[in-house]
Each structure stands twice: as C-alpha cells, then as structure tokens.
Amino acid sequence: MKFEDLLLEIGGFGRFQILILALLCLPRINLPMHFLLHNFLAATPSHHCAIPHQEEFVNLTMEEVLLVSIPRKPDGTFSSCEMFSQPQFHLLLNSSLQPENKSIIQHCQHGWVYDHSQFTSTISTQWDLVCEQRGLNQATATFFFIGVTMGAMVFGYLSDRFGRKTMLQLSLVCSVVFGMLSAASVSYTMLAITRTLTGVALSGLSLIVLPLGLEWVDIQHRTFTGILSSIFWSIGNMVLALVAYLVREWHWLLVAVTGPCVLSIICVWWVPESARWLIAKGKVKQAHRHLLRCARINGRKDFAVSPEVRNYKNMGGNYSYISLFRTPVLRRISLCSGVVWFGVAFSYYGMSLNLTGFGLSIYLSQFVFGIIEIPAKMVMYVLVNRVGRRPSQAWTLILTGTGSLIWANPKIWLPVTGFSEAAFTTVFLYTSELYPTIVRQNGMGYTSFLARLGGALAPLVFLLDEVWRSLPEVTYCGVAVCSGAMAFLLPETLNMRLPEGIEDIEKPHGTEDAGGRRQIRTRAGRS
C-alpha cells in the first residue's frame, strides 16, 4: 500500500492538512525578511568626503562649500570618494572649470558625510563601508548566504536522520538567538560572524517547511501546496518593505525581522512530524498515532489501521549525500537539479538585491517586487498542472536570462522579475517531487547548498561593472539560460506519486498517477 492510499483513507486533503499549511505559513513569511534584508541593512545613501575646517567657509552656502572642496564626476555630480587637498576657490567664479592638476585630488581623509533623509543608519554608515571598503558592504550578503549554504548541508542530512519537525524547531530557535546577536553587533567582524550563523540557522527553515507540508497532502493538492507556500514568501517580501519603512535604524530593523520567529516556534509546536518519513524510517507506531489524529480531524472516524499498514515496508537506514550519486537515475537528477538550483538562485538574488535605478524608492520597489510575484505564481499554478514541471522550469529560467540583459529598463524589469520568481516557485515544488522520501531532505539540502552558493556569488557580480558596465547582466543571462537548458534533462513529475524509496525512481516503469493510470518513467528521463 502506497502512502497516497493511506491519505485517501484518512480524508485526502481535509481540515487536518489545511491546519498544517496554515501553521507553516508564518515560518515561510519569516524567510524573505532575512534573505532580502541586505537591501536595507547594507543600503548606501548618497555621501561625500567630510570637509575639515568648516570655519573657513562661514560665508559660503553648502553648495558652494562642496564646489570648492569636492571634484565633480563626468556626469556633473559631486564625487563620493574624492576631495581636493586644498579648497579651490576659483571654481566659485566658473564652476564649469575642472582642475587640470590631478595631484590635488585625493581620497577622503576625514571620513564621510551621509544623507540621512532615507536611512537613520545602516551598516554602511556605521562602519564607512563605501569607496575602497565597498566590497565589504556587498560581502555582508555573501557571508549570510555562505551560512545558508553550510546550513543546507547540515539540516538536509539531519532532517532525514532525526525528523523534519525536530530540525525545524532547532532552526527557528537558533535563528532567534543569532538574529538578536546580529542586532547587538558592535563591530563589522561580529556582524559578519553572526549573520553567517543566522544564515546557517535559517537554512533549515528554508529546506524543511515545504517538504513537510507536501508529505502530508495527496497528489491532487501538491501543486496547490507548493504555490501557496511560495505566495507566503511574496507576502514576506511586502512585509519586509513595510517593516523597513517604519524602522530606519539597522539595529532595530534586525530585531524587528527576527522577532516573528518566536511566534513561528509556537506555531511549529502544533505541527505533527511527517508520517510519510516516520513510516519510511520504520517508526510505524508514531506514524499510526498521527494518522489516527488526521483521520479524526478530517471526520474519518471509521479509519482503522489495517494489517497491511502495520507491515508497511521499512526503508529505514543510514542515507547520506553520497546516496544521491550511487544509482544512475538519481545521479542524473542530482547533477541536473543542482545546476538548475544554482541558476535559479543566482539570477533571482542578482535582481532582488539590486532594487535601485527604477525611479521608485527602495521601499516601494521592494513592495512592488513582492506584489508582482503573486500573479506570476498564479500563472505557474496553471502552467505546472497543464504543461508540466519540466518545461515550466526550463522556460522560466531561459526567459529570465534573456530578460536580464535589459533588466535595468523599467519597462522590462516587472516581467523579468515575474519570470525569475516563477522559476524559484517551480524549483521548490519540482525538486520535492523528484527525490524519494528516504533521501528527500538530503536532496533538498544538496540542491539548496548549490542554490545558496549562487546566492552568495550574486551580490559580488555587481562589482564586475568596474571591468565592463554590462558584464553583470551578461553573467546573469548566461548562467540562467544554461541552467534552464539543463532542466530539460530532468524527468517529469506531473501526476506522479511521490517516490518512497530509491528503487521507485530507478525502475524503468514508473508508478501510477492520481487516476490509477500507469506512467512510464524511463532512464532517459521521459515520462
């Protein structure tokens, strides 16, 4: 008896499943509030070199003080990183003149003055992470995603070994601890370390929430569950914009986005462990207890554990990341899905961490970024059910890459953002369906590792504009298109049962679909 048959006996998709999904929504909202926090935490307001001896300019306006103290860039704006070694008072007579003697221009010697009209303080203004230190500012996001990358490997293995719920609770508790320590940082080094550890902790949250929900729902509602979980990510996007607008000081902003994790801990307390995982690990008695509770809440009081269920196959054992590469089909799935995840995250965070230059305030840009994701996910709900997971994944990535070449055009950034988010929405659902229950979290951990590696590299690509102005866009395009092409090599999972053991995906003949029809899954990946 397959687990989907058990689900049908206990009500399929009823009040119990709705309750689980509702409880898992808040943890999902927490994620983007940290993953996209860099836009506000490390925002760099307009700035210029601090000018010493202000008493010499008592009769000059601020504009005139800047004119004689700060050189202009070719576009006519004042330089952010350079100043004159001596005041150039002759520029008051003709401001269009540019000093021919470049030796009088030097780097800022006395710090910087920042525009605080939009941000009370950020880590850029706190520790002067501008000009020569600009790389450290971008590296803050990289440190966070390095943490997420390491956490993916840790929580992916542990959640397959010790259970989904236990690791989800541990992830949330650690997120609160390290998030609050980040808010209390007194140096850049302390912030870098605590943000890295916060990334490690939040990785478990990112990995476990969706698979835990999917393992409790039937075939017909898997797509709905995946899209619903993704929509709450978008809601988190919009909540982040609102919180950042209200809290302009970076210490308190970190407190504000970490606080909801406490409420998530309470919500997760009421979420049951995955009965599918418990049975696969041979913990049949615990699984039966949860199944009986599910049947009772769904109104199936006549449900009884049959002898066949009591003798359900025990696929328990020690599986690791090496298991993902031991057999041919699973090896191909792991290699291809890893490339796809890297491309999805690389392109998504390349756009979402660069929400400037669109003629909108950063707060409105972030809010709009969240809003436009929701229609994209509604469209994906139809596409992945009608067209299939594989073509949907491939073409959303290819279109994202193509559009990223002209990403800075305000007329195109909305649809490109929609394609990028659609790719991310699909990959979570698709990957959860590709891997067997017994190694699902190992598979999610491995693919998430590569995704977060892409997320860690994405902010650093912005620095390539110093080599060639269009190099970042070309890089994002190339990676997205190549990873989209790789998605065509993955097997289709539309209307397929979730595989329980590795043999379920290795055998040449697939499993039955939702209507009882046989679907063929060959080693070539066709279905």
UniProtKB/TrEMBL annotation:
The UniProt entry, under InterPro entries, shows:
MFS, MFS_dom, MFS_trans_sf
GO molecular function ontology, one term from the record? transmembrane transporter activity
The record, for SUPFAM superfamilies, names: MFS general substrate transporter
Disordered: annotated segments: 505-527
Q: Does the keyword ATP-binding apply?
A: no
Membrane-crossing residue ranges in chain numbering = 139-158, 170-191, 197-217, 224-246, 252-271, 333-351, 363-384
PROSITE patterns, A to Z? MFS
Major facilitator superfamily (MFS) profile domain sequence ranges? 87-495
Comp. bias (Basic residues): 518-527
Q: Where in the cell is it found?
A: Membrane
Show the GO cellular component annotation of the record: membrane
What keywords sit in the KW lines? Membrane, Transmembrane, Transmembrane helix
Membrane topology per the entry is:
Multi-pass membrane protein
Q: Where is the composition biased (Basic and acidic residues)?
A: 505-516
Keyword set includes Membrane:
yes
Among PANTHER family, the record links this protein to: SOLUTE CARRIER FAMILY 22 MEMBER (PTHR24064)
- Name of the protein this chain belongs to: Solute carrier family 22 member 7
**Source taxonomy:** Eukaryota, Metazoa, Chordata, Craniata, Vertebrata
